[in-house]
Amino acid sequence: MIADILTGAIRSGTSVMLASQGELVSERAGVINLGTEGSMLCGALGGFAVTVWSGNPWLGTVAGGLCGLLISLIHAFLVISCGANQLATGLTIMFFGMGVTAFFGKGFVSQQIVGFNPVPIPLLSDIPYLGKILFNHDPLTYLSMLLVPMLWYLIFRTRLGIILRAAGEREEVLFASGINPRLVRYLAVLAGGFLAGIGGAQLSIAYTHSWVENMVAGRGVVAVALVIFASWKPVQAMLGAYLFGAAQALQLTVQQQGLAISPYFLFMVPYVLTLVALLIVERRKQSQTPEALGKVLAGSG
Amino acid sequence: MSQPTSIAFESKSTFLQRHSSWMIQTAAIIAPFILFGIFLTFYEVNPIELYSSMVATTFGDLYGFGEVLLKATPFILTGLAAALPAKAGLVNVGGEGQLAIGALFATWFAIFYLDQMPALIGIPIMLLAGALGGAAWASVVAVLKVKGKLNETITSVLLNYVAVFIVGFFVHGMLKDPNSFNWPFSPEISYSLRLPVINGTRLHIGFVIAIVLAVAVWFILSKTRLGYRIRVLGSNRLAAERAGMNINRMYFWVLLAAGAIAGIAGMIEIAGIEGRLRATVGTNFGYLGFLAAMMAWNNPLRLMATAFLLGMISVAGNKLEIFSGLPSSSVNILMALVLFFILGSGKLVKR
Q1: Which end of chain A is flanked by fewer CB atoms within 10 Å, N or C?
Q2: ipTM, two decimals
Q3: Which range is the signal sequence, renumbered to this chain (chain A) (predicted)?
Q4: Choosing among B150, B166, B248, B280, which should be mutated to test the A contact, i.e. which has the most A CBs within 10 A?
Q5: pTM for this prediction
Q6: What is the dihedral of CA B221, B222, B225, B228, to 10 degrees?
Q7: B175-198: per-residue pLDDT in tens?
Q8: Is B39 in CB contact (< 8 Å) with chain A?
Q9: CATH class name, domain B62-348
Q10: Are β-strands A136-137 and A119-120 bridged in parallel, bridged antiparallel, or unpaired?
């Protein structure tokens, strides 16, 4: 049963994890994007639609990422070029994503796809206990696991990472060294949107194999919250996402075991857990917030 | 924008600054309608026909006008729930959940305690119950903000999802109608608790309540000492702190008041329209109210106008579905476009 929950944690946490890694990049550059929810929705629908048309889930994944990127472009433009309030803009994009996907998604509700299915990795998946939990997933999940250390290296060990972080901490420094901080922010937000789109596509192509209106159900918002929970560190964000996934997997397991707990309480658990996690972390530290972001969160951005 | 670098970036904006701000505001409202019109032509809908029928239905007869006001009522209230905290520098997006919990409290009271009550006593108690529910739900956000230092935007959105599940829990359980053949909704509330309706329309006195509250919030914000303090807090937190205000206490009570107003919107949905609680009560009303407040630059008086406009668009959405087969949610795209333009033009307008 515990192995089931852990496997499910990774399976249902991957979409949130991808989105939170993307949001992390964006927030490191000083832009908080609640539109992640909208990017995920558009990625889920775009990815699903292209998979239906082409039959190729890889093409669908790329399409999902591009849809997410396009949506985040609106956020980047309004926030960086027009100086709009980041939180309000993100919410509007979330609402926009719901409207657009409800509109274009109507014809896809009953469609079926093959999509991605779990591929056990030879040898590794035979390791007792761990093999089943870690090495029996769909290809996107493996890729997302590889992404985390890569992103960590990129952010903390390369020049590119320093530029990214400088955009979120001290844009004057970047400006002085001849790099346009706005350009860095644009690229960071777009990268974030792309990853959120892929996260959404993972949800529809690999996890549920279907499109349902508003299927992202707050995962994008959770991803934003997890980045704060993770103090803007990729590995912690991954763990947070799997924690969210575990809370969701718990639902299914409890239902399968036939325990008499109202499903509605179980539905709440992942969201409440996210809030509690945020609260615990926020009580411990304050200083690691990227400076530009701190202003937004305090209400003057 | 205090960084030295920003000067170099913003030299372009002088051209637009020469235009008076009202022109930009008007353009920001009109442009999305044009854009959405172009979008509609791809789906073989004539936008001019749609927009003119929108105006015709609204102002054609009393019934149509009443329908628009009816739609606008919850938007005014959830809009106030966003506008009031915005004046204090808070972004409350919890209207959605606060409305749902308000509806839950109101229905609970109506079914278990007020079934035999005459309207004159029952309806006010039900209204208070709704306000209490909304305030209780907002108090979670408020406590997390004040005690936990958590950003209210993120917590209030997350709590919206939780609120919907709570309502779901009750309509599938304790509040479920025993005669509903397993449909998840509450029994109907007593007929005496229904809000009185204006003859010839479906419009109920909930609309009057919304208008009174909007004017009251405007009055408090712009004419009283309390409102002045809220505005100071919103425009310059540091100054408010230096002036010795208890910021956390202000945040707390402003959020609670906002929640109470959204909760009243929930009560009005139950007593004025639905007559019973469903899990889908007021879906998107919170977000649309937030939108209406943004469009009105968080001014309660202008909010009545923007809520009216959103009411018109909502009614048009239903027509769109009936006449052209496009889903009624298409108008959500229009609404989001409107807000994009408002947000984009925000820094160009001097407030």
Answers
A1: N
A2: 0.85
A3: none
A4: B150
A5: 0.87
A6: 80
A7: 888 887 778 888 888 888 889 888
A8: no
A9: mainly alpha
A10: antiparallel
Q: Residue B197's beta-bridge partner residues?
A: B204
Cα distance between residue B97 and residue B282, in whole Å = 9
* Interface residue B280 vs chain A (CB under 8 A): no
Report the C-alpha gap between A118 and A138 in whole angstroms. Answer: 4
How far A259 CA lies from chain B's nearest CA (Å)? 16
The answer for residues whose C-beta is within 8 angstroms of residue A144's C-beta and 6 or more apart is A14, A17, A18, A21, A202
Q: Using DSSP, state whether B92 is helix, strand or coil.
A: coil
Q: Which two tokens stand for residue B336?
A: 């989001």
Q: Decide if B165 and A91 are in contact by the 8 Å CB cutoff.
A: no
Q: Tokens 């990795």 correspond to what residue?
A: A121
Q: Dihedral sign for Cα B114, B115, B121, B127, please.
A: positive
Predicted confidence at residue B231, as pLDDT, reads: 93
Query: Which residue segment(s) compose the domain that A293 sits in?
Result: 2-298
Alpha helix positions (H), B43-172: 47-60, 62-87, 95-112, 119-146, 152-171
Measured between beta carbons, the chain B residues lying within 8 angstroms of A172 are 3-5
Q: B44-91 pLDDT, tens per residue? A: 888 888 888 888 888 888 888 888 999 999 999 999 999 999 999 998
For residue A179, what is the domain's CATH number? Answer: 1.10.3470
Domain-wise residue ranges, chain B: 62-348
B43: three-class secondary structure by DSSP: coil
Q: Of A77, A95, A298, which has the smallest distance from its Cβ to B287's Cβ? A: A95
pLDDT one-digit tens code per residue, A10-27: 988 999 999 999 999 999
Residue B165: list chain A partners with CB under 8 A: 264-265, 267-268
Q: How many domains does chain A have?
A: 1
Six-digit token string for A171: 């844009």
The pLDDT tens digits for B261-279 are 999 999 999 999 888 998 8
Return the ∠ at Cα B294 (arms to B223 and B213), rounded to 5°.
Answer: 45
Assign B204 to helix, strand or coil.
strand
Whose CA is closest to B318, among B37, B38, B53, B62? B53
Q: How confident is the model at residue A300 (pLDDT cuts 50, 70, 90)?
A: very low
Cβ atoms of B91 and B85 within 8 Å: the answer is yes
- Please give, rounded to a whole number of angstroms, the shortest distance from the CA of B319 to a CA of chain A: 15
Secondary structure of chain A: what % helix, strand, coil (to 5)? 75, 0, 20
DSSP states along A121-155: PTTGGGSTTHHHHHSEE-HHHHHHHHHHHHHHHHH
Give the single-character DSSP code of B189.
Answer: P
